[in-house]
Amino acid sequence: MGSGQAMRRITYDQAGMEAVAEEMRREPKSFHLGTDAPPALLKEFGAQRVRATPIAESALTGIAVGAAGSGFRPIVNWSQVTFCFVAMDQIVNQAAKIHYMFGGQVTFPILFRASVGGGTRRAAQHSQSPYSMFMNVAGLKIILPSTPYDMKGLLKSAMRDDNPVISFESGRLGALEGEVPEDDYTIPLGKADIKRAGSDVTIVALAWLVHEALAAADSLAKEGISAEVIDPRSLVPLDADTIRASVRKTGRLVIADEAGPTAGASAEIAALVAEDPETFSCLKAPVKRVCALQVPIPYSPGLEDHVFPDRKKISAGARFVVRRVPVDGGRT
Amino acid sequence: MHPSPEKQRDMLRQMQTIRRFEERASADFRSGAIYGVVHSYIGEEAVAVGVCAALNREDQIISTHRGHGHCIAKGADLNRMMAELYGREAGYCKGKGGSMHIADFGIGMLGANGIVAGGIPIVTGAGLAAQLEGKGRVAVSFFGDGASNAGPFHESINIAGAWKLPMLYVCENNMYAVQTPAAKSLAFKDVAARAAGYGIPGVIVDGNDVLAVYEAAVEAVARARAGDGPTLIECKTYRWRAHTERPAQPDYRPPEEIEAWKKKDPIPRLVRHLKQQQGQFSDEEWQELDKQVLKALEDSVTFAKASPFPATDAALEDVYAD
Ligand SMILES: Cc1ncc(C[n+]2csc(CCOP(=O)(O)OP(=O)(O)O)c2C)c(N)n1
Ligand SMILES: [Mg+2]
After folding, report:
1. Beta carbon of B136 within 6 Å of any ligand 1 atom
2. Which residues of A touch B315 (CB under 8 A)?
3. Which of B88, B114, B319 shows the shortest C-beta gap to A126?
4. pLDDT per residue over A251-303, tens digit each?
5. CATH 3.40.50.920 residue spans of chain A
6. CATH dotted code for A193-323
7. Cβ–Cβ < 8 Å for B149, B120
8. Do the chains contact at B100 and A307, CB–CB below 8 Å?
9. Architecture of domain A9-181
């Protein structure tokens, strides 16, 4: 954050709304689509540019692709990520591939927004963090903001990008407040942020778990373990350099993700570290992933909390890689 | 033809059970005993009850996110429903589903669903199974006006028409999808008119008149059982409460509109009908019926509270069949 800038505190959700409103003011070719029209946007920009669509995510996603290829810059809010699954053809076969497949003739600048994560007691269909499914599709960029500051800066970059960008936004963080500059700023896609510096262990944490990792780092400090917390902020492109440099310094890596481990973002991060010869040779302990259990998310509160990682499980993971203290029953 | 007075009394009991269940679910959601989200069916009881009264136990239905009414109308156990809302082990889904995901396959209730239109193809598959078995079973899809604009509705109803599947597609047109008025999503006001394009009958009924819904369903079920294929029934109705029970849930619908629909309450309407037409239903009987309904609900809450929360290891069970 630049010093001397006027700052104020706003929430994660407000930061998202501000980013969209400011970019819509800057860019007359942008318009907003979703099954709900956000009242503030509707009031400012009118029903022509802020459209409430029927419940037809496949069509509205494809409409964004077509409008983008015709010179517009659509912003699509899928609301919860689960609702975009009915639009998978338009996302995976169309939006992601169309620029490449047609030899780059025109661009397809689209921002897709979706909330992710659990903790809301809304059971399996409404508690998902499927970003790695989309990381697997070449042609999409993916951001994952964890603070109001990152939300606004990343969304602005995403709306100025000439590619389809998906913003996965943690439902748990909606009311989180943080400092955000008054003035225009952007955060480049593909630049990780060191949220806390440390020397004994690198904790790469995603979205909501950035905050759990920071809390874990506080308590680990009291035990004499110095943790560095890294927030990748964007998953495609992923800032391997910053993560590798940190691991070369600490020699240990814990990855915390609200999604399950299987073929997840955590697996990709572990591989990027392990396959780099210089970083690999600095590892003093096996990599530890602290992820959700690989199950659909259950409704009952005790079950749901059991499935998700949290600050305690992250701390246990860090103790394991630093001091080889076994993690609960061998399972995290 | 109207059903017998006994059957009408059963229908009244079911509608009142749904009403009281929903009142309790909202209250217990507000007090924190029920988690996540609850979508209230109050005002629309006549649709689920009128349709299910035309079905047999073997017939199958599928529901939506607003599913409690469909469960009760198909004969679900209130105890296990309430225990599911309370997140307990004795709940229908062992506490894994909650309000949006109650199912009882044993009575042909194939589940509530959190994805708008997500259930329509699935219950069409139940219709195909019924046709393949050839025992005269039918399958019923409940869905909203909002869902009628989603691809799975059109894909499914087209196939059901082409294959003459024994199906009822029952649209609960409550005029809104969350905040969006149906009039802004449909260029023509009647969902039922779409049936013509799929070569099947489309019927519009007053969804607050349980006897009218019942009669339309009886006719459609007869058609389906006779091998003549699906019917689209559009029930014009209204939800009294906001889209969900979340405290901050905005509701932009005009208050006069809500009040006008409350005057069309399907429950007193059937009470009046029973009293006038049959002349054999007294105020005392009505009060007694409501007392019994409230007692059954109180029992269901007691049952729910007595059931333990699931053990944490249960989180790992049922991901795959053994
Ligand atoms: C595919 C999908 N998109 C969006 C949603 C969010 N959502 C939940 S209920 C609802 C409105 C449904 O309207 P309607 O089908 O008319 O049913 P009603 O709520 O009126 O009973 C929406 C948009 C969803 N659950 N699934
Ligand atoms: Mg509706």
Report:
1. no
2. 293, 295, 298, 303, 306-307
3. B114
4. 999 999 999 999 999 999 999 999 999 999 999 999 999 999 999 999 999 99
5. 193-323
6. 3.40.50.920
7. no
8. no
9. 3-Layer(aba) Sandwich (3.40)
